[in-house]
Amino acid sequence: MKVVGQSLPKIDALPIATGQPVYTEDLAPSQALVVKVLHSPHAFARLRQVDVSLALKVPGVACVLTHQDVPQERFTLAGQSYPEPSPYDRRILDEYVRYVGDAVAIVAAVDEKTAEKALQLIRVEYEVLEPVLDFETAARHASVVHPEDNVLCNFPIGMGKEKNIICTHKNEYGDVEAELAQCPVVVEETYYTQAQAHGMMETYRAYSYLDHAGRLTIVSSTQIPFHVRRQMARALEMPASRIRVIKPRIGGGFGGKQTGAVEMFVAAVTKRTGKAAIIVYSRTETFSCTNSRHAMRLTVRLGADEEGTIRAVDIQGLSDGGAYGEHAPTTFSVVGEKTLPMYHKAKAVRFMGQVVYTNKLPGGALRGYGATQGTFAQESAVNLLAARLKMNPVELRQKNLIRQGDYSPIYKGKVLASSTLDQCIATGKKLIGWEEKYPVRDFGDTLRAVGMAVTMQGSGIAGIDTASAEIRLNDDGNYTLLIGSTDMGTGSDTILAQMAAEVLETNLEHLIVHAADTDVSPFDPGSYASSTTYVTGMAVKLAAEELRGKMLEQAAKLLEAEGAQISFDGVKFWSEDGKRRLTVAKLAERMALGAGCQQLTGQGTYGSPTSPPPFVAGFAEVEIDKATGKVTPIDFVAVVDCGTVINPALARVQTEGGVVQGIGMALYEEVRYTGQGRLETCNFMQYKIPCRKDVGNVRVAFEPSYEPTGPFGAKSIGEAVINTPAPAIAHAVFNATGVQLTQLPLTPEKVLNALLTKKRG
Predict the structure, then answer these.
(1) Helix H or strand E segment including 189
(2) Domain annotation covers residue 676
(3) Of 552, 584, 606, which one is at a domain's C-terminal end?
(4) pTM for the complete prediction?
(5) What would the pLDDT profile of 474-525 be if each residue is shown by its tens digit?
(6) Environment class of residue 214 by beta-carbon count within 10 Å: exposed (0-12), middle (13-18) or buried (19+)?
(7) β-pairing, 277-280 with 243-246?
(8) What gap in Å lies between CA 727 and CA 397, rounded to an integer?
(9) Model pLDDT for residues 130-140, shown as the tens digit of each residue
(10) SS3 (DSSP) at 437
């Protein structure tokens, strides 16, 4: 392959590096009304009265909207294919506010100062209710977060909202209890993961306007333009045909922008006033008024024989959904789907539990999407089992892991078609120096320890998400690739362009990539679920192959030769005898402008019945200060099986970024609420994300497999790479202290207490 597999620079790398690209806010009309939202100061309350009379008198205020001024249809902001599994449990504005930061009213004014002044003049009479703040007691709490009777579920998700239960889930194969009863070695532990923030560079923002035909156009920093269109159609009670959504460049998302956050506010203003409107959330609003990772409690039981064969895996889960149910059923199901198949020798496996409503910031999608939480719990339990068996954790995993060709009833009942996880483990073990460093070395004032974990994820959503692509041969001999996926800075536009270029035997300079405009782009669910390279990539490959076929057919006609008698090198066609030649540019000209009377195009659509998992083996080395308990990352090795690596440079930075996020979750990112339900860690002064000096050395290696259902043998990489740092680092701390810490993040206080516990005995 000439283009696929090459570390080509991103097609937009230079403009980004030089500050040239324009983002959502840069494109907004200068006369757009500035939209601000009045947020609730209470975790749970009913609005008795909202008096906006003084706010409306402020010169320059265009409108002030309350729950009485907007449509009453309930919907979900989860960016998921229809029919969404998330419950329709919210309105644009509601008579109830369900967390500190929930929307009370919308103000639109000529400028920000005027809008802020109007906000301060809104008078609200609240009936303050007792909030549900502890997700472990939510199901038996006297308060009901959603007392309304018109919450809609498209599927039977096991909702019991009168007990604050969003959904109930169970996935089981075999008789877990019977197997556990027969196992001579059983370990059990409960693990907690926190509600991690996304921390993307660009905060939530959008603007809207009416076009020349009176259609509502929304320009948004979103991962899901087609889903936003559907959300807005339902929320505003408008036909989807009257709504257009455009995605410009995005300054990061990490799953946060798979949930709608601000589009509904500007859309409601434009619908009401007929004027363009823009909203830009502050960093504090982005932290406290949108969504986060779901906090979870996961109890793991593992049963094994004395030789280390894992015979039973049982995971009991409870997830904090927050105030609304976006992504609650699917995030929770992924906890089991991406963990239970890992240890293939087990005769019985089970994952079950509930997601509950609380009066906290809603949970949503975040890189790893449930597998991160599940991996931390299961891999920590496997490391605990290895210690109980006095067995090297590397050997324990190699003995039990799923391998290529294995059938898994949990893995959608499929045969695993591609995996080099065993090689990933072997490579990672060598790179970290496992034999020399395991388990711990004492340097007097400090300890050096190593730990490991493995993970799997998916590539798209099997049997649900379908992507389309179109590629055109333009009249000048260049190509336009039309896609609906959203590049969030990951380089996915470049990856897809490389695939098209490989088929057409051209280079990226001859490809124009146009992405994510619901009026122009072919349908794509958006960038989430690690779907772009695998699902959209196959659609692009199919589209390019169709176009190539049409080009060969028309060139043969023009050269007066049979198709099999001509050759093509990406620049020209020529007959078998070498006497007749035709360039791509001339073919394009003849077809589009001459006798051909047609523009050659190719279309491709792809949806996979399977979601082939990428695999990662993660190895951590940390240093622990005996006096303070501070954990300092020294080295982290991530070895990845993502199938064929389309662009090694971009795959490497994806992995490095995921590892850094995982280190942040493991050590630094602590979420704190007040006793009244207000999020204290609502900016980067209170919420610590790691900087370069906080993460140590991060090394990445690849052990490619070949996935037969993926484009050029590729699988995904975006999500799996965040999953191993937390359990690997926790394992290193376990090896150093002899005490397994079960609650993230691993703060110095927790580690110091573990050291003191070890010292006492």
Answers:
(1) strand 185-193
(2) yes
(3) 606
(4) 0.97
(5) 999 999 999 999 999 899 999 999 999 999 999 999 999 999 999 999 999 9
(6) exposed
(7) unpaired
(8) 14
(9) 999 999 999 99
(10) helix
